[in-house]
Every structure is written in C-alpha cells, then in structure tokens.
Hints:
Elements: H1 2-27, H2 34-40, H3 55-68, H4 70-74, H5 81-91, H6 94-98, H7 105-115, H8 118-139, H9 144-167, H10 170-191
Helix pairs in contact: 1-2, 1-3, 3-8, 5-10, 8-9, 9-10
Amino acid sequence: xxxxxxxxxxxxxxxxxxxxxxxxxxxxxxxxxxxxxxxxxxxxxxxxxxxxxxxxxxxxxxxxxxxxxxxxxxxxxxxxxxxxxxxxxxxxxxxxxxxxxxxxxxxxxxxxxxxxxxxxxxxxxxxxxxxxxxxxxxxxxxxxxxxxxxxxxxxxxxxxxxxxxxxxxxxxxxxxxxxxxxxxxxxxxxxxxxxxxxxxxxxxxx
Length: 206
C-alpha cells in the first residue's frame, strides 16, 4: 500500500512538471497560473501543495527538470561528435523553431529565469553545466573549465539563433536557420579539432 502511494505521488508530480514545462515555455511563467497548469495536468488545484510549496518552487523544479532531460528528449549523446552534430542539426531546424512548448527550455525561458528567484537561477545553472560538460569533454578533455566555456559559447549561439528565428517572418527565419546551422556546425568542427559530422555540413533547407 505504501509503495502504491509513493508511486502514485511520483507519477502525479511528473504530470505536474510536464504540464508546467509545456505551458511555461508556450505562455511564459507570468502568463501561466497554477490553476492553468493543474488543469493541463488533469488535476485539481488542491493537489498542487502536496508537491510544491509555491509557484516559485514549481518554476525552479520545472526549469531544472527541463534542462536535465533536454538531451534525452533530443535522443542524442552529447558526449560523442556525431551526437553533438546531430543535436545542432535538430536544434536549428524548422521543426524546433515551430515547437516552442516541446522545445528547448533555454530558448523559451531564459528571460523568465533571469527575472526569477535565486533558487531558479541556481537550478538552471547547475543543470546547464551538467549538459554543457558533456560537450566540454569533447572540446578539451585536458582543460575542463576552458572546454566548458567554449561549449557554453557554442550553445549560446544556438539559443540566440533559435530565439531570433522565432521572432522573424518565415522566409527570413528559414534563411537564418540555414546560415546559422552551417556556421555553428563549422564552429563545432573547429572546436573538435577538425572532426566533421557524416554528411551534416549542408547549406540547404532541412
């Protein structure tokens, strides 16, 4: 009976995190109330406080959860060259541009995170470092700190391109994604000492 209760509570918490992640990315944190998140999760408002102390507490957990599982959702291993190149291709694609709710938490929530609580910024930073360090190990295994900054700079370029593409008319956005994808792939190739992806360096629409 106890195991069932624990499993049920964990499943309910997961439903809330998933629903909040999609709504926060789509509508922003300020535009997403607890009632709307709980309705998305198919739960009553009263169930919220069994899992989170406040909306700020929820935001911090959602941000960490979204970044933590970003690689899993993309289905790539950032610890391999081909995985990194595939991640870039997928990230700077029309499909990702058009999938705000299901896409990258950084591209959708950076402004909310920067305006959020210290706990939210700390949670984001801790999980982002974990994600970026997988890339950093490829960039410079002998200098983890230098590799981390280089990998973070690469990721920042990707985030900025995607954010701008989402704000532009489709024709300009498509051109930006093509050029941006090409440039970021080249940057990644240089960081990896000339290693290239298999058939990935393409100057064409995906």
